[in-house]
Amino acid sequence: MSDISTRAREILQRVGAGDPFTGDGALHARSPIDGSTIGRLTPHSAGDVEAAVGAAHEAFLQWRSVPAPVRGQMVRELGELLREHKDDLGALVSIEAGKITSEGLGEVQEMIDICDLAVGLSRQLHGLTIATERPGHRMMEQWHPLGVVAVISAFNFPVAVWSWNAALALVCGDAVVWKPSEKTPLTAIACHAIAREAARRAGAPEGVVQLVLGEREVGEALVDDARVPLVSATGSTRMGKEVAPRVAARLGRSLLELGGNNAAIVAPSADLDLTVRGIVFSAVGTAGQRCTSLRRVIVHESLADDLVQRLTAAYETLPIGSPLEASTLVGPLVDEAAADAFVAAVEQARADGGTVVTGGERVDAVEGGTYVRPAIVEMPEQTEVVRTETFAPLLYVLRYDTLEEAIALHNGVAQGLSSSIFTLDVREAETFLSAVGSDCGIANVNIGPSGAEIGGAFGGEKETGGGRESGSDAWRAYMRRATNTVNYSTELPLAQGVEFL
Ligand code: UN1
């Protein structure tokens, strides 16, 4: 057994997940670090999904009556357990998703942060009192638990995305059924064991968290189940376009976090040192496999040559290799298909008249792993390949002359997740943040588009799907709103002055 496999197994034991492996299961848990199989798992069937939703629904019927601040105790326990197991979980994220150590730990920290937010929120799920037009009446709104929430998550944030949804859903009084990416089952098994322990410690109903593993048919069974009022799905736009109509066909709700094609405008006044650091982290961090990764730089003509030169110099020093090595900044892509897509996009960009300034090829950093050299490609225009999200460290550079032109290029893609401008000019910054500026759900000044904190609402427009998760008032998506009018008078005045009986 390889070191990686042994390490993953030890972590699973320590977090209370035991030994989930079966000798001949159809689901292979593997590591992109060296392409090795860690172990095999048995995927769930459509029937198992039905049973999981049934158990979650039963748990929901009890959980909805537990006072919200008491529900918060379960999420507090979850946060405590995550703190305790932070190093192990972070290492498992590195092993299974290929993130460098600091980013694996950062992802677990993101889970801890959302737990803290949700615990506070458990005392703040408040509605409004609204003035009524009728004497002796009171009108108000209440937020009630919604039901069973399905969470479909992607490989690149294998645990944080679940936590954003689950921590909020649980304090909101919902039960959660999680279908992780088939590429990252082990981190899900680990978190699920931790969440069950949190439920046990807090005295929450056992079935309130459920995990279903598998591929497409498992997701479909979940999406089609009428007992699931909300499907929160994170992944590709292609996946979202399949999920949304199926959920809509039964008039369920979906919360979609789909692709991004995030850009940074670099204006003439930009602080270039800061800009270069911001760009490199956003474009190369997580090997370009964040939905918020920077994919397009739109730079003013006057500093384009200087910027490209500095970026190239920075790219050429980036250590590529095993994410378990402390010095590595660029880990592997998730699998062969991802590396093929990267190489194919670079080729297409070249065919479209682009100039590959640096990178763009496979690297044999660790035998069996899928490593690439991050690429910068100067493009004469925003061709189709630039408008397509390639989930890899591939950065296109486009030049502009006027801010209007830059914003038009910026918004000229189908996705609308995250965005940024580097400028010291307050007029430019505010224009970018205004109604005629960035059309994305996230717009930043002097930081890159990735690495959002959990306090803000997270999500985007257009083909990103419109959903909002995490902070601000995103919790409302996990509840149902009831408007209540109470008549405490002896009369029965009708609204709008209607006379009757
Ligand atoms: C994702 O890639 O699916 O803003 C989520 C960020 C992280 C979350 C990314 N906090 O980059």
Automatic annotation (TrEMBL):
Which class of enzymes does this protein belong to? Answer: oxidoreductase
* Name of a matching Pfam family: Aldedh
Q: Which family does it belong to?
A: Belongs to the aldehyde dehydrogenase family.
The yes or no answer to whether the keyword Magnesium is present is no
Record-listed E.C. numbers: 1.2.1.3
Please report the stretch or stretches of sequence annotated as the Aldehyde dehydrogenase domain. 27-481
What highest taxon heads this organism's lineage?
Bacteria
Q: Could you name the active-site residues?
A: 257
Biological source species: Aeromicrobium halocynthiae
Oxidoreductase keyword on record: yes
Name of the featured protein: aldehyde dehydrogenase (NAD(+))
Sorted alphabetically, which InterPro entries does this protein's record hold?
A: Ald_DH/histidinol_DH, Ald_DH_C, Ald_DH_CS_GLU, Ald_DH_N, Aldehyde_DH_dom, ALDH7A1-like
List the keywords (alphabetical): NAD, Oxidoreductase
Q: Which PROSITE patterns match?
A: ALDEHYDE_DEHYDR_GLU (PS00687)
**Tell me, how does this one assemble?**
Homotetramer.
